[in-house]
Amino acid sequence: MFYNGSDWTKAGVEMALHGILILAAALAGEAPAPAAAVELVSSAGEGAGGVPRDDSYAPGTARIVTGILEYTRWPGPAAPLTLCVAGPAQQAGRLDGLRLADGRTVQRRQIAPLPLAIGGCQVLYIGNIPPPATRQLVAAARGKGVLTIAEADPACRSQAMFCMVYEPRAVSFRMNVDAIARSGLRVDPRVLRLAEGGF
């Protein structure tokens, strides 16, 4: 089930509200999560969703990643987060020096795209690497309290928690509710506000 924030007819609003209620319940652990990802669009646009060749979407990517981190809670005391970038990432140029509203800092670390390299990462931003390697990284992070974001997997086939989607004039993402439920993290349903420009 996908929601596009720029297409709000009466029927679309009703369907979206129904989906939000299901999603909120699933994220709170009150209902089984739907088997599909939820697409959240941060601004208007159309396109194939592939990664652009330049870094023109890096500011939008940083805004979305910061918003996702704001709405995610890790087990244990609040501390600086380590955001690991695995492989070459075209849109990760603005992920250095992020600061969250609660004062936590986000420290970026470049790692090899190998499962053994993800130790110490709270956030795993997966760059443009082959799909099998992306799936291996996501599988290695599953259940270990690591938030996974895939830059080059717009269809979310890797089972990452969040998958970036690049449109001609917009940056959006897909949220995989099943992956979030298996992650060991708590993602506040208010992350949906990112789709409406509320963050």
Describe the structure.
- It is a single chain.
- This protein is α/β, with parallel strands linked by helices and 199 residues long.
- The protein has a single domain (10-196), classed as Aspartate Aminotransferase, domain 2.
- The protein is 24% helix and 23% strand.
- The protein has helices at residues 10-27, 58-70, 131-141, 177-181; strands spanning 37-41, 72-73, 81-86, 98-99, 105-111, 123-126, 147-150, 162-167, 170-176, 186-187.
- Strands 1-9-8-7-6-3-5-4 form an eight-stranded mixed beta sheet. The protein has a two-stranded antiparallel sheet with strand order 2-10.
- Residues 1-49 have low confidence and may be disordered.
Q: How many angstroms separate the termini? A: 23 Å
Name of the CATH class: Alpha Beta
Query: Number of helix segments?
Result: 4
Shape: globular
Biggest sheet character: 8 strands, mixed
Radius of gyration: 16 Å
Question: What is the H/E order?
Answer: HEHEEEEEHEEEHE
CATH structural fold name: Aspartate Aminotransferase, domain 2
Corresponding CATH architecture: 3-Layer(aba) Sandwich
Write the SSE topology.
Elements: H1 10-27, E1 37-41, H2 58-70, E2 72-73, E3 81-86, E4 98-99, E5 105-111, E6 123-126, H3 131-141, E7 147-150, E8 162-167, E9 170-176, H4 177-181, E10 186-187
Parallel strand pairs: 3-5, 3-6, 6-7, 7-8
Antiparallel strand pairs: 1-9, 2-10, 4-5, 8-9
